[in-house]
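The pair is quoted verbatim as follows:
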Amino acid sequence: MKDLFHVCMTAHKEVMIRNFDDARDFTNLMALAAFRNDTSILADSVMSNHVHFIILSESPKKFSLSLRYSLTKHFNYIYGRTGRLFDKRVFIRKLEGTKHIQMAINYCLRNGLHHGQSETAFAYPFSTCNFIFSRARGIKDPNLSYNRAEIQSYLPKNADFPDNFAIDNQGVISRNTFQEIRLAESWYGTPTNYIYNMNRRTTEDWIKEQEKDDVTADPITLKIIEKGVQFDSESDMLKNEMGGRASVVNMNDMEVCSVVDKDILGRYKSKSIYQLNDKRRCQIALELIHDCHINAIQAARCVAIPVSILPDEYRPRKLRAY
């Protein structure tokens, strides 16, 4: 029997989405993993270092491990990397109750906003958000290709996929063709209610609404959804709901990785950050801190080194040696 689950996979020590091609490949591998494991995806939000899903599945763990394996294999091949990519633990929570489920979908779709990557939930490009009630919100249907040979060119060799899959003009399998968009819409009822939920501020009312569900499960909160993520504080994520912060924050991970991969690696005569030893990666991290004005944790993440190997004065206080 299938149930609804919230699934979160993290990669604390390094970036798993360095550029648009990585985001495209992750989305396509996600579609294949769902197809292989008879799993329906209602919503997702792909960040540079973690991903949230709302899925309908008999085995969320099987789906998660299948996706982790295929993405790690692909990422390691592209960047000449070895070893596990994701953190070992996958966070899985069964969802019950109409309001509990709606709140979980809300938090999943608003993840880009909560992490300060966009000024509204709708502006974050790597999620299901803009596919829900898209026509009612004035979004035109994209021009999609169902040509199997063309689709195959963006997938692993000999990948099996159904005839309903279609790609957009950038090679991304459209979420309209592999996710349960209509099912996600059913938890909102109307486009107006959906827009309201994407724009409303998190308050105690969200908990009170869930008390109306006839279930014993704890209410879904931002803290519960982000359990194990540990990238931004809850207070910062709540501030980000106000919008506007994304336009003034420092560079995001993909922008930093672009500087590394396109501008810096050439000086080291390297095609990948993973071809350099820790000493050289540390040098690049310090360059990013000074020139791009980012913090040590982000710099270390984008060059795939532990922040603890940076010079003492750059480490966060809790990591400094006394």
Summary: The mean pLDDT is 91. The first strand starts at residue 3 and ends at 10.
